[in-house]
Amino acid sequence: MIRVAAVGDVHLAPDIRGRIRRHLDGIAEHADVLLLAGDLTQHGTVTEAEVVAGEFADLGIPVVTVLGNHDYQCDSEKEIIALLRDAGMVVLDGTGVELDLPGGRLGVAGGKGFGGGFPHRCASEFGEPEMKAFVRHSRLLAEEIGKALRDLSADFRVALTHYSPVAETLAGEPLEIYPFLGSYFLAEAADSANADLCVHGHAHAGSECGTTPGGVPVRNVALPVLNRAYAVYCLGELAAAAVSARRQRPPPSRLASKPASRSAGSR
Amino acid sequence: MTEDTYVAGQIERALGGDPRTHELGVRVEVNGDDVVLRGQVASAERQRLVARVAAEQAPGLRIRNEVTVTEVRPPEEVPEVLPLPEEAAPAREVPPPHGAMS
C-alpha cells in the first residue's frame, strides 16, 4: 500500500508563513509521499517560493510538486523551480519521477496543464492565431504529461496537475468558467497510461471527487476544497483488500473519507 | 443596472490584476452605491487588502466585505482508500453538443 498525501493552492507568502506547516509535523506517520498541486505562491515571486521551501522542508517523506498559474505571474517560474529543487523538492514540468517507497514503487508524472474545456464545450485549435496558440498550449502540455505517464514503469502511476482533467471536480464553480479551469486533454493523457489516480487543484469552489472517462479516480485537492492541511489516498494491496471486503457487505460506500466540502472560492 | 455590471467587472479586474491582491475568485456585486465582495482568501490581511483595492477602484461606493478566510483544519485520521480501476465509477455520459466555444 502507498499512502499519497496531497494538497494544492496553498498560495503561500510571508504573511501566512507556517499556516500549513503547523499541521505537517508527523506527516511521515500518515503518508509516504506528499504531492503539491500548484499555486504554491500567491504572486509568483521568488521570496514567496522561499516560504514554500521552508514550509515543506524536512518532512521525512518525498515532496513532489507542479507549478500553478499564480506561480507564473511574475515570470519567475524558472527561478522558482530552481529554488524548490535546491530545497529538495521534485518539481515536475511535463516530466515524471519514480520513487521507491515502503509500499512499492510510485511513479508520478505531471505539470501545470492548462484550460480549454471539456468535450462538446471546449475551445478548438481553429481560427485566430491567439485561439490556436491557447488550445495548442493545452494540448502539447497534456501530450507531454501523457508520454511521461506512459514511460513510468512503477507499480502505481499518479498524474499530478494544477488544472483539472475533468468537469466533475469543478462542480460548485460557475459553469461559464469551466474552460479556464481545465481540459479533457489531461484526462485523455491519464487514461492513455491507465493511471491509478489524478490529482489537481485550481478550482477553489469545486468538489473533491471525480472520475475520468476511462475510470481513473480524480481528486481536486485545492486547499479551499479540502479545508484541511492535506488529504491522504491509499493505493495498493490494502486498497484491494478494502474493496474486496466492501463487496461482501452493504452498504456499498466507496469512500472512507467525509464528503467533499464546498466553498466560494478564488484561484 | 448596466453601469453596475461594468463597475463590478472593473473591480473584479482590479482584484485580479493588482499586485497587492492577485485574487481571481472574489465575486463582486454592485447595486447602485453598494458593493458586495464574496469569496475566500488565505489570510485576514488579504481579506483587508481586497476591500482596500475595491474601495480604491470604486471611490464613493459603500463596500461590504463578505470575503472569508479559508479554514485549514488538521488532516483527517482516516485516509481514503481508492477503488481499484474496475471498481471505479462508470464514466458519465457526455452531454450532447451545445454552446461549444469556437
What does this structure look like?
- The complex is a heterodimer of chains A (267) and B (102).
- Helix content of chain A is 25%, strand content 22%.
- Chain A contains six helices and 13 strands.
- Chain A has helices at residues 46-55, 77-86, 129-151, 184-192, 223-226, 237-247; strands at 2-7, 33-37, 63-66, 90-91, 95-101, 104-111, 117-118, 121-122, 156-161, 197-200, 209-211, 217-220, 231-235.
- The longest helix of chain A is centred in the middle third of the chain and has 23 residues, at 129-151.
- The model of chain A is unreliable at 249-266 (pLDDT under 50).
- Chain B is an alpha/beta fold and 102 residues long.
- Helix content of chain B is 29%, strand content 20%.
- Chain B is built from two helices and six strands; from the N terminus they run αβββαβββ.
- Chain B has helices at residues 2-17, 44-57; strands at residues 27-31, 34-38, 40-41, 62-65, 68-69, 80-81.
- In chain B, the strands form two sheets. In chain B, strands 1-2-4 form a three-stranded mixed β-sheet.
- At the A-B interface, strand 8, strand 13 and helix 6 of A face strand 3 and strand 6 of B.
